[in-house]
Design a protein that fits this description.
The complex is a heterodimer of chains A (550) and B (234).
Chain A: H1 8-31, H2 60-70, E1 80-89, E2 94-105, H3 114-132, H4 137-143, E3 149-158, E4 170-179, E5 182-190, H5 199-203, H6 209-215, E6 228-229, E7 250-253, E8 256-257, E9 267-270, H7 291-298, H8 352-366, H9 455-460, H10 496-502, H11 514-537, H12 539-549
Antiparallel strand pairs in A: 1-2, 1-3, 2-5, 3-6, 4-5, 7-9
Chain B: E1 6-7, E2 20-29, H1 33-47, E3 49-50, E4 53-55, E5 60-63, E6 68-72, E7 79-83, H2 86-105, E8 111-122, E9 130-145, H3 150-176, H4 190-193, E10 202-203, E11 206-213, E12 222-223, H5 227-233
Parallel strand pairs in B: 1-9, 2-9
Antiparallel strand pairs in B: 3-10, 4-5, 6-7, 8-9, 8-11, 11-12
Helix pairs in contact in B: 1-2, 1-3, 2-5
The chains are: A alpha+beta (550), B alpha+beta (234).
Chain lengths: 550, 234
């Protein structure tokens, strides 16, 4: 129907949202793989430059690469924007870790309001992306990069290529947003055999080659776009100075109306900048890389040559790497960044002092890239606003669209994910994962007690072995050290563990034994002729008795 | 700032029929309780907070900017993102600290649950007090385990970290369903939908409560406190 077609203004707005959403998505992903903690400040007064009402910095080089890949296009069906995260060792081997995909499918939502609902949902999706980028395996790897490996990113546009992730890669969906022109989907496919090749292995001394070879995959497609390190040094000594985001002139001043959705307001203004565009040096500082490593890096096939590295960590205001390198003394210890390298970690308990610490840490990132935009000065502000008559936001409208959810939505897991942790056993979650079914667990279903041999049975059936055991012969498993959780010694005189051990395999009750029953029947049958003979002898007495009854 | 009293359901009552409810379960060591709870609560609130609203003429409003920051856990191999708001962080830490103390002091088997409920206020006429209508309820069930040695603790660090990653993915799944959210309010109604007492961000109205399960396995002891509202209303 004609009236549900997108107005040209809505279409323009939507395209702009999608474009900036794509750029912000790339920023969030790359920044999450820089190897450092990200911190941006909330601001109660809108600055007019923060798309989707989120403080996400723009690293100029990253925006530049993203725009190059997009080449003026937007994600559409069959044309996805992908951010590939890979790892490259100091020996030059590389391995793809993740592919983040921003895709568009044909499922359109014609009813949705562009300037309002779509915008807010895109903002929500970016928040989800912030959260999800910290929970895939590559995050922990990226926090420890610098000495033996670095994390690289590559942006491409077109068809998604997942073959470099190895077998059995997993996907996680970040979210979707329906729009009138299609549904935006954001997801991540990540290599999982990282889980076995944990960060510990990167802390050990060589050989690393032996591990990498398993994952070394020839790229099926030659790199159409160059790979870039997620951490880099931007400065005057760097030959390439990337222009700041030229579209920064096009800021997003969001102005929402509480009127009914049909009269929603969205204002996009072209602000006039008084100050020159910010210089590259405003961008964040980079972590240190070892000298030996930097030599390797410059001779690799990366097209982006970072500047001379090896600056002392005194220059840096925040902890990033293991300055101590391989922690041979504790090969199994997973140390978070900041716990080594001589720079104290940011304490997790808030105190007066830490606020200042955190602000210092954030300083390089806090430089605002855009000067403040004042929408009121712009001529091409398109503002349509209708005052709300107070009938909006009525709580009576609430109850119409609430959905009912079952409690315990996440308690049910897919079958293949049932682990011991779901069983109500102490320390179940530490049990080896290959024991998947409760039935196999000896602690839940102890082996059946053996049937005890009756001593009588031995005499009746001479061919049977006169088993001497009346007790437990079943010793297939021995509990060495059973520490029942939460058992209190002062209540029972006997330790719960001892109790359990002693009485775990009680003998079966004799009356329940089939053999005993069968044996007594045999006895009865054998003794019948004898009993009949006795009764026949006394037949006269029986007859007399019967006559007294008649 | 005024203190508004809400009629809340009696302790132990189930939430309203049309309130979305999600339940997460974690097994953690005692010293991991706080960080695990904060990770989950902050992740939910990240999605349920906006920038500060600034109402202008003719019913339009603009929205402030929400900053975010990474938090590393000390006792779990895990990191999460939270909203950059010290006030909000303090409020959550207070609630989680009380929960942790209650767990420890109750003498129970170390089982309890902490709930984060988002609600809307509905004004009622005098003499009735305002009603609080929940629209989303997150419950985190906690089981505290005791570990015997350092090796078990190290394994626990990693396992709990992996579990929390799953929980974050679960939370994001729920958020992505784009189910009911309160309508954006007018200026006069904004305090019925959002908590406007913070200076830098604006979460939906929420309250945190917790229950400790006693050793019989039943929630005989129920502690419901409107911690945050009381704290921030002062």
């Amino acid at each position: 129907a004609m009236d549900t077609d997108l107005s040209s203004q809505d279409r323009k707005d939507l395209d702009k949202f999608i474009k900036f959403f794509a750029l912000k998505t790339v920023q969030v992903i790359v920044q999450a793989r820089l190897g450092e903690k990200i911190c941006t400040r909330s601001s109660s007064s809108p600055t007019g430059s923060d798309w989707f009402n989120l403080a996400i910095k723009d690293i100029p080089e990253v925006t530049h690469e993203a725009k190059k890949a997009l080449a003026g296009q937007l994600p559409a069906v069959g044309r996805s924007m992908c951010v590939e995260i890979s790892l490259k060792t100091s020996e030059g081997d590389s391995m793809e870790l993740e592919i983040w995909c921003l895709e568009m499918n044909e499922k359109c939502d014609k009813e949705i309001k562009v300037s309002y609902t779509v915008y807010n949902r895109l903002s929500l999706l970016l928040k989800s992306l912030l959260a999800i980028t910290r929970v895939t395996p590559a995050y922990r790897l990226s926090r420890k990069q610098g000495h033996e490996y670095v994390i690289l990113y590559r942006i491409y546009f077109g068809e998604v290529q997942l073959s470099g992730l190895g077998e059995g890669f997993q996907t996680v969906r970040v979210g979707t947003v329906g729009t009138p022109v299609g549904t935006i989907t954001l997801s991540c496919a990540y290599r999982i055999n990282l889980a076995f090749m944990s960060t510990r292995q990167f802390e050990r001394t060589p050989p690393i080659m032996g591990i990498i070879i398993d994952h070394f995959v020839d790229r099926p497609y030659p790199s159409s776009s160059p790979m870039h390190p997620c951490n880099y040094r931007a400065g005057e000594d760097n030959g390439a100075v990337y222009p700041s985001v030229e579209d920064s002139q096009e800021v997003c001043t969001t102005s929402f109306s509480t009127s009914p959705p049909s009269q929603c307001v969205f204002t996009v203004t072209k602000a006039h900048f008084q100050t020159p565009p910010p210089v590259v040096t405003d961008t964040l500082k980079v972590p240190v890389m070892g000298l030996a490593f930097s030599h390797q890096l410059s001779s690799s096939r990366l097209s982006y040559q970072p500047a001379a590295l090896g600056v002392g960590s005194a220059d840096m205001g925040f902890p990033v790497l293991f300055a101590g390198g391989l922690n041979a003394a504790h090969p199994h210890q997973l140390i978070g960044p900041g716990k080594e390298g001589g720079v104290p970690p940011i304490p997790s308990q808030p105190a007066h002092g830490t606020q200042a610490d955190q602000e210092r840490m954030c300083t390089p990132l806090d430089g605002v890239h855009y000067s403040a935009a004042t929408p009121s000065s712009s001529e091409d502000t398109e503002t349509v606003s209708n005052s709300s008559e107070g009938k909006c936001g009525s709580p009576h409208d609430l109850l119409e669209t609430i959905f009912i959810r079952k409690v315990g939505a996440f308690v049910n897991k897919p079958i293949n994910q049932v682990t011991m942790a779901n069983l109500d056993i102490p320390f179940a979650m530490f049990a080896p994962k290959n024991v998947e079914l409760e039935d196999n667990d000896p602690m839940v279903n102890p082996p059946d007690s053996p049937e005890t041999e009756s001593p009588l049975q031995g005499s009746l059936h001479s061919e049977g072995s006169s088993g001497s055991s009346t007790g437990n012969t079943h010793d297939d498993f021995v509990m060495i050290d059973f520490k029942p959780a939460f058992s209190k010694d002062d209540i029972l005189p006997m330790d719960l563990g001892t109790f359990y051990r002693e009485f775990q395999n009680p003998p079966q009750l004799s009356s329940l034994s089939i053999d005993i029953g069968a044996q007594s029947m045999a006895e009865d049958l054998d003794s019948l002729p004898e009993k009949l003979a006795v009764h026949e002898k006394n037949v006269k007495e029986f007859d007399a008795f019967v006559e007294t009854l008649q | 700032p005024h203190r508004t009293c809400c009629r809340t359901p009696p302790p132990g009552a189930t939430p309203a029929m049309n309130c979305r409810a999600e339940v997460l379960e974690v097994s953690v060591e005692g010293r991991q309780v706080e960080e695990a709870m904060l990770a989950v609560l902050h992740t939910v609130l990240l999605h349920r907070s906006t920038g500060k609203f600034h109402y202008k003429k003719e019913g339009t409003y603009s929205i402030g900017t929400v900053g975010t920051q990474d938090v590393d856990c000390d006792f779990i191999d895990f990191a999460y993102v939270r909203v950059s708001s010290e006030e909000l962080d303090r409020a959550l830490r207070k609630a989680v600290g009380e929960f942790k103390d209650a767990l420890r002091n109750s003498g129970s088997d170390g089982m309890g649950q902490i709930s984060l409920e988002f609600y809307q206020k509905k004004k009622s006429r005098w003499p009735f007090s305002d009603e609080c209508i929940p629209w989303e309820l997150w419950t985190i069930k906690v089981n505290v385990v005791n570990l015997a040695n350092e090796q078990e603790r190290q394994i626990c660090r990693e396992k709990v970290g992996e579990k929390l990653c799953e929980k974050i993915i679960n939370i994001v799944e729920v958020m992505n369903r784009h189910e009911y959210l309160p309508k954006m309010p007018t200026q006069s109604e904004v305090d019925n939908v959002f908590d406007t007492s913070l200076k830098d961000v604006q979460p939906y109205l929420y309250k945190i409560s917790y229950q400790i399960t006693d050793s019989l396995g039943t929630s005989v002891t129920t502690t419901m406190r409107r911690l945050i509202k009381d704290t921030l209303a002062l």
